[in-house]
Amino acid sequence: xxxxxxxxxxxxxxxxxxxxxxxxxxxxxxxxxxxxxxxxxxxxxxxxxxxxxxxxxxxxxxxxxxxxxxxxxxxxxxxxxxxxxxxxxxxxxxxxxxxxxxxxxxxxxxxxxxxxxxxxxxxxxxxxxxxxxx
Amino acid sequence: xxxxxxxxxxxxxxxxxxxxxxxxxxxxxxxxxxxxxxxxxxxxxxxxxxxxxxxxxxxxxxxxxxxxxxxxxxxxxxxxxxxxxxxxxxxxxxxxxxxxxxxxxxxxxxxxxxxxxxxxxxxxxxxxxxxxxxxxxxxxxxxxxxxxxxxxxxxxxxxxxxxxxxxxxxxxxxxxxxxxxxxxxxxxxxxxxxx
Lengths: 134, 195
Known about the structure:
Chain A is an all-beta fold. Chain A contains 1 helix and 11 strands, in the order βββββαββββββ.
């Protein structure tokens, strides 16, 4: 039985710009940005919660029976419809389209206490989640 | 100016478990096999997507839609003379070294209604990326006025990214960042979806 747990997570993005030519178009690394962007962090946790589920249209669920957690990963694993993440029932309403995921340390108004993670879907979708509790 | 823009983005998560060694050596970690309730994990997690060309403006609200500039950018490329949100000296709110200093007073990166003191003025956001480049934890709010919405924690070296939203729910157009103690720095991408 493991005695310690940690989560290493990265969020990365690559802004690109399109240049059109008479013969077609090509995508390049965005010249306003000039590089790929990434952040890398590790959080040490005590408990982990993994699961998958399905939301029917108009339904919502607060993950792990409204457990307060400090890290949240959520992925929209459906095939058509969007998913919305609502941290703590207020604040962020983050939309995940099909195949997209969100990974971040979460909190209750900068109190270093963690928060709940609620998912909503207007038209219904499947989801996967991984939560960590400090 | 670009004829179009898009942003490829993704997240990657590696859950790990470790054992305290018998000898006084550093712990060794392996991929997490089971969560705390015994459900199998045993894999890395992640997702990838693209904010496509139809969702993001080719002509961004200012050259400061990213907090930094390309290393090969020329001085004469700073040519947006719009008052407040332009990038002339007297108009720019941008941190010129590409890093924005954040302290205990909330810094409003953007919001969904017109204002004279936010970086993005009255524009719906297509995509938000914020990285904490300093050594102090910062907190991000997506709630109008910041309020009690500082629900995303960005540790030193970490980043967060998500789609923006329309003026109604879901709404991630009101972006505020602050720390609880001394200052840190951030870099950001604030890409608008409307002209």
